[in-house]
Amino acid sequence: MGFLFDRNTWQEIFGSISKNRTRTIITVIGVLWGIFIYIALSGAAKGLDNGFDKVFKTVAINSMFVWAQSTSMPYDGFKTGRPLQLKLEDVKTIQNRIPEVQYIAPRITQGQFGSEPVYTVRGQKYGSYVLNGDYPIYTKISTKKIYDGGRFINQEDIDQARKVIVIGERVEQELYNKDENPVGTWIRVGSVYFQVIGVHKLAQGVSFDSDSAMFIPFTTYQKLYNSGDNIGYMCIAAYDDVDVVQVEKDIKTLLRNIHRVDPKDERAFGSFNLGEAFSKTMGFADGLTFMSLVVGIATILAGVIGIGNILLISVKERTKELGVRRALGATPAEVRNQIVMESVFLTVIAGILGIILGAGVLALINSLTKDIDFPYTNPTVPIPYVIGALVIMVVLGTLIGLIPAQRAVSIRPIEALREE
Amino acid sequence: MIQIKDLHKSYKMGKNSLHVLKGINFNVEEGELVAIMGSSGSGKSTLLNILGMLDELDEGSYTLDGVPIKNLNETKAAQYRNKFLGFVFQSFNLINYKSAAENVALPLYYQKVPRKERQEKALKYLAQVGLKEWANHLPSELSGGQKQRVAIARAMAAEPKVLLADEPTGALDSTTSYEVMDLIQKINDQGNTILIVTHEPDIADMCKRIVHLKDGVIIEDKKIEQVRAAKYV
């Protein structure tokens, strides 16, 4: 392989590829286009991937909601259609019995799922909003961005059943003037006054709560509505590495057991599994990445075949030259090396140019999509992909180059020279 | 320098076999200037190709400078060609994207001569054929006679044992032909062995020996009084 580092080899290669500029440029464009498509596509797919990642960052990926419905089968002496009610003890039981559960936040809510929203008044302004009774652990499952100076419900609020409230962005807009700071002010919810402790910003991307939701401590809600141990639904986050679908099944089986529901009654408890939805979305992004990989590699392949094709024609054109070279003492190996090196050299140059061009286009896309509301972030191509593509190109370039090289060698010098 | 004994060569064309050389016996001493003459189809080019190791013989033996030339693979043949032989073709066969100097340096490249030395030698041989000022010109910028002189310089650059010329003046007008022959004679004067295939009697007369081929056999092999080409230049 010493010839690779010989300046003379390179001079010969340069000489012959700079001889026919048009041929060289067209050849290079073929591969350049291939690698460009590859980089641009996989970068774009990665951008979408990153975008989804960012969207889901605000919630625990492996999370789900579970709520009670009514039975659809008679069981254990109960008739069908019995309404079910989740209780606070259920939360404890789940936490104790199902180790895959990381966080579990019970919540009781008014104003959602058909119940009346809560009439809320501040001075002359009023509106009707969703009211949630929450535990602080809820923020572990769904991140709450609280505007400057405010906070979410904390443990002391729960312990003392404080009359404090976190309001949504729209609530703030409707009840306050623009320059007012709601934190510390009082609003009337139903018939009780609450002190506002924070305004939550609507999370970009996935959010469990609308911007018109309000949050009060669970214990306060219990007192206010005399709801006892009833809860509306549970927000549950499983550990990252567990099968969230299985956890969902386990939880529902457990709940059926506790509430004496037929184990086959699938409709007794409802659930929404965000982890499953997330993995579907990520599966889509993965599919896109895979597709872009396939398309990109196919395009590179087409480009490299183009190089082989053009070299084959050029070998035909250069039959005489190669014959002369061999008459002058070029061994078949030297001729073969030269043709293969030309192929590899063109491929690599084209590849590098394509990578640069692709990176440029990705940078452009990045700056264009920065401020739009679309799950698209930081389109990049992982370095191993780039190196992989380069390796593929060198290997393919060598293999493809071998075809014209073999052809060049198979023509005997005398035949080459005879050709007029 | 060259010993050929009972050389046979035939080409297969489909079912027919064309017997081109039918027993050639032929020796060339060092320093000879031999013209191989014959009409087309007489086998003179085939003989030259075999001498040039561009083609293989069927029967007989060929010894070049004491080395038996037989059963060569392409690599070995290429090395021998590079070491022993210089070629001059009718159609010059210069590489059209290389300058005159680069063309001359090409056989040296295949001899693995270092670049700098290669350039020096190329210029030296170009100077010998009187084309030093044209070193950086492409073949397309040279006249036919100049091209052939570059080709001769290229053939000489490798310092071969034997110079083989296939119709070196075939593509040139007579004045230019004589210039080229003058150059060949001068190279011969320095002691180089040269074989020229030609069908022009005036060119053959400028050699020291004429070998006449007809239908694959030597019908005449005579030493002659050399006509100096310089007279006509």
TrEMBL record, chain A:
ABC3 transporter permease C-terminal domain boundaries: 294-411
Keyword line: Cell membrane, Membrane, Transmembrane, Transmembrane helix
Superkingdom to which the source organism belongs: Bacteria
Entry GO CC: plasma membrane
Location(s) in or outside the cell: Cell membrane
Signal peptide: none
Primary location recorded for the protein, binned into one broad class: membrane
Keyword Cell membrane applies: yes
GO molecular function: transmembrane transporter activity
Membrane spanning stretches: 25-45, 290-315, 344-365, 385-405
Membrane topology: Multi-pass membrane protein
Residue ranges of every copy of the MacB-like periplasmic core domain listed in the record: 24-253
Family membership: Belongs to the ABC-4 integral membrane protein family.
Name of this chain's protein: Putative ABC transport system permease protein
Lineage of origin: Bacteria, Pseudomonadati, Bacteroidota, Flavobacteriia, Flavobacteriales
UniProtKB/TrEMBL annotation, chain B:
Entry keyword set: ATP-binding, Nucleotide-binding, Translocase, Transport
Transmembrane segments: none
A GO cellular component annotation in the UniProt record: membrane protein complex
Residue ranges of every copy of the ABC transporter domain listed in the record: 2-233
Entry superkingdom: Bacteria
GO molecular function: ATP binding; ATP hydrolysis activity; transmembrane transporter activity
Pfam families: ABC_tran
Gene3D superfamilies in UniProt: P-loop containing nucleotide triphosphate hydrolases (3.40.50.300)
Family per similarity comment: Belongs to the ABC transporter superfamily. Macrolide exporter (TC 3.A.1.122) family.
Name under which the protein is recorded: Putative ABC transport system ATP-binding protein
Organism: Maribacter arcticus
